[in-house]
Amino acid sequence: MPDFPDFPQFPEGSPFEDFFQDFMGKRGQGLPIQPQASLGSGFIIDAEKGYIVTNNHVIKDADDIKITLSDDETLDAELIGMDEKTDIALLQIKTDKNLTAVKFGDSDVMRVGDWVVAIGNPFGLGGTVTAGIISARQRDIHSGPYDDYIQTDASINRGNSGGPMFNLKGEVIGINTAIFSPTGGSVGIGFAIPAQLAAPVVKQIIKYGRTRRGWLGMRIQKMTDEIAESLGLDKTRGALVASVTKDSPSDVAGLKTGDVILEFNGEKIETMRSLPRLVAETDIDSKAKITFWRDNKKQTTTVKVGELEKAEENGLLSEDQQEAQKPETDMVELNSTGLSVTEMSGELREIYNIPGGVQGLVVSAITPNSTAAQKGLVEGDVIIELNQQALSSPEQAQNIIKAAKKAGRNSILLLINREGAVRFVALRLDNGEKD
Fold first, then answer.
1. Which of 149, 205, 321, 405 could cross-link with 191 by S-S, CB 3.0 to 4.6 Å?
2. CA distance 286 to 80
3. Which one from 83, 87, 148, 381 is the annotated catalytic residue?
4. Phi then psi for 203, rounded to 5 degrees?
5. 333, exposed or middle or buried, with CB in 10 Å at 0-12, 13-18, 19+?
6. pLDDT (tens digit per residue) in 164-197
7. Under CATH, domain 217-321 is a member of which superfamily?
């Protein structure tokens, strides 16, 4: 059961730590290192085939996996497949016993305050039942790309990992996975993978022995109020496309850097986090309708969904495979921004290690305490685009800023390249400055 944060068993530098290492032979002396054992929980989802669901971190790198049933019989288990991104593993046992299976319920209908029951093997005490309520939903604990955890105050401790969380109908609506604890024990903050996320993963592992997730071939970033205002959106919503991988499904469908994804297959994208999950759960090679924002209006396109795992195998997710933006460019202060920029040159490329394919205006100075400084911009950053227009000169940048002010905009949107990585930065304009 992972803890957040991860606290060491002994204080760093403690004499007990040295003693423990010596005793276990970690310095090549003393007794041989004993095989380590990991305890966890799980639940049967198919009594006929003996399928058991647990957490990936419970069985990861295990030489042998053994399952102890409720009657204390221990059986060898085979690993059918696992998924590190969601921390799910599927095991199988073979027995003549009549097993009892449970089924997944609908976690999406669960509300904060609903009662839940957790069953597991905390500290090796198998068959322990605890009860509590759902404290929160859609928690992001930064453990993976699809974080969407159910938070509960039902007691979850070490050994509960992989165990089921039931609703009052006896349906599994979550898989107990992690705790936040400064002590290592339950303090009433536990996290479970929702059934709506887990069930499709389990089905894919049963069918293919691995996951097969949908893939569009774009990097996205979170929308902010300033970015939304600079793009003319009525409110902060959607997912901002930071870059598009060349020849990917998104590229073929005509999506571009700076587009804002508003809907995917009819589902509204209120926050960036919801898009990766929707795409991942979409069938490979199926066609999905995307509604996006570009040039101050909604537009639509259809994309043929690719496979994430194949893209990973082919190295299409690495930074150097993403499309570099192109344009060209002299030392000028950009009014109202706190930035001074210079046209691109061979000398600047050497000084700031700017790749040959990257074009734009190089940030040469930043006014202290300006919005640009607060946003983390540094000398050597390359401004590829300003308000979604490729830059060719500082004068062009000034004209774009003037046009934004004239239109009543309080912010401008920069596309920044730093050491090959691209991201959008919205800068609030100081309208007190003169043009």
1. 149
2. 26
3. 87
4. -60, -40
5. middle
6. 999 999 999 999 998 887 766 778 899 999 999 9
7. PDZ domain (2.30.42.10)
Annotated catalytic residue 57: yes
Torsion on CA atoms 205, 82, 182, 115, rounded to nearest 10? 20
Residue 308, helix vs strand vs coil: helix
Active-site residue, 70 included: no
Q: What is the location of CATH 2.30.42.10 in the chain?
A: 217-321, 332-428
The CA-to-CA distance between both ends of the chain, in Å, stands at 59
What gap in Å lies between CA 176 and CA 161, rounded to an integer? 5
CB 30 within 8 A of CB 22: yes
Tokens linked to 33: 């290192």
pLDDT tens for 241-292 read 988 999 999 999 999 999 999 999 999 999 898 999 999 999 999 999 999 9
State the catalytic residue, choosing from 161, 186, 248, 250.
Answer: 161
Catalytic residue from among 41, 57, 107, 153: 57
Strands 128-139 and 164-166: unpaired
Q: At the topology level of CATH, where does 1-211 sit?
A: Thrombin, subunit H (2.40.10)
Q: Which two tokens stand for residue 251?
A: 């590229």
